[in-house]
Amino acid sequence: MTAKTWGIYSLETGIFRSVYSGPEATxxxxxxxxEAAIEGDFDTALVRVNLETKAVxxxxxxxxxxxxxxxxxxxxxxPEAAASLAKREAAEREIQTLEASQARAVREFIxxxxxxxxxxxxxxxxxxALRLDLR
Length: 135
Known about the structure:
Elements lengths: L2 E8 L5 E8 L3 H4 L4 E5 L7 E3 L6 E3 L9 E3 L4 E3 L1 H32 L5 H16 L4
Antiparallel strand pairs: 1-2, 1-3, 4-5, 6-7
Helix pairs in contact: 2-3
């Protein structure tokens, strides 16, 4: 048997799910309900099937949100949004680290260590400052 390549797409949207290569007799096994196959090797991120004409045509999927830009192949976060996300994730990690470090200071505060309250207050202030990056 000769292997062929098909694009598997939605009968509702024309958007490709995947590309399958194999014997023609096995293509039906690859289809889910509501899908069809069209012969060819497609870049599934950049084309779709026109449901009226069954022709494969260029396609840019809808933007996932206002913080995304199209880069000729896919949607990605804008540099500003990516930087904001990285800043937020770094703040979350630092807050987790600071919160994890409080156990010793709390124990020492309960036991009456003289500087424990100051350390807890400093940790709380640092966490409060980092929370500003979570907005």
